[in-house]
Design goal:
- By secondary structure, the protein is an alpha+beta fold.
- It is built from nine helices and ten strands.
- A hairpin with a 5-residue loop joins strand 8 and strand 9.
- Helix 5 packs antiparallel against helix 8 and helix 6 packs across helix 8.
- The termini are far apart.
Length: 306
């Protein structure tokens, strides 16, 4: 994050949180930084969250995604933005959102798997044609390809070969080289539990529409599927998630109880490669060995490549 961006982003969030401030009343609200990555900077000021998106974000695509999140059809699935169009700050697209309480990572047994499954099922059953504007493609495969590109750029690493072999074995659509197979549905594009927040009214909603679009809905189930396949997600949690998704009418897997893995296999493999590639990249940057979970992901890629 540039040194000049944080004060300007803070001012934007403060103005949205206090549109009619008293001139003699100092603002006592802290402005914590919620995320600071290459692709996004996110801060909170009171009840408002301000997000600075990546500088190369196509404004037309972002506007289409914001309008989708603001559409009444998706009011029970996606957290709506405060405004359906982005503004600009120092060459970065800026969006404003109501604050929601994130999932508590310190209480894994309370993870809202059923709520997440229901939200995804609702999202997947909304026909893209029901929206008044066209959406771009879901960016899941593109993000996976970017992760592998970062792995190449990080230089040689003893754990990289099995990850790259597993990547090479995937079909072209999962590597973002060709369009995904149809039929296409509305997809989140980057689902994990960090993409859920609870509203002040107590409702769970999906956040982060940067990768929202049309594509293969199984991609949204791929991360928990991959963690289950790698032994990092307990079988009962995976079963609760999958069964709830099916009961809610989700379109990514058969709802009649038949084997879901023909639909999930390729996306789950792709997410395993993506996560392993990012893990290696981060370990190189920090000059540290892989931890136990990261090693498990690389081992899964080794089995996949065999």
């Amino acid at each position: 994050m540039t040194t000049a961006l944080l004060p300007a982003l803070t001012t934007t969030a403060r103005a949205a949180a206090h549109p009619h401030p008293r001139s003699d009343a100092p603002c006592a609200c802290p402005t914590p930084v919620l995320a600071d990555r290459d692709d996004a900077t996110v801060i909170r000021h009171g009840t408002i969250v301000a997000k600075a998106h990546a500088p190369d974000t196509p404004p037309t695509d972002l506007t289409a995604r914001l309008k989708t999140a603001a559409h009444p059809t998706l009011a029970t699935a996606l957290l709506p933005p405060l405004h359906p169009t982005p503004t600009e700050l120092q060459g970065r697209p800026i969006t404003l959102w109501p604050y929601g309480t994130p999932v508590d990572r310190d209480v894994p047994d309370a993870a809202p798997w059923e709520a997440a499954a229901t939200l995804l099922a609702h999202l997947h059953t909304v026909p893209p044609t029901a929206l008044p504007h066209p959406l771009p493609a879901m960016r899941g495969p593109t993000k996976a390809a970017h992760a592998v590109a970062r792995l190449h750029a990080a230089g040689p690493h003893p754990a990289a070969p099995p990850v790259l072999r597993a990547w090479a074995a995937l079909p072209p659509w999962a590597r973002a080289e060709t369009p995904p197979p149809g039929p296409h549905h509305l997809c989140h594009g980057d689902f994990h539990l960090g993409q859920l927040v609870r509203t002040p009214e107590g409702h769970w909603r999906l956040i982060d529409v940067d990768d929202l679009g049309t594509g293969t809905p199984a991609w949204d189930l791929a991360r928990p599927a991959a963690w289950y396949a790698c032994g990092l997600l307990a079988p009962d949690e995976w079963t609760r998630f999958l069964d709830t998704y099916r009961r809610a009418g989700g379109t990514a897997v058969p709802t009649d109880g038949t084997d879901p893995w023909p639909a999930l296999d390729v996306p789950a493999r792709a997410l395993t490669v993506q996560t392993a590639a990012l893990a290696i990249t981060k370990s190189v940057a920090a000059d540290r060995p892989l931890d136990e979970i990261e090693r498990a992901l690389v081992d899964a890629c080794e089995r996949m490549s065999e």
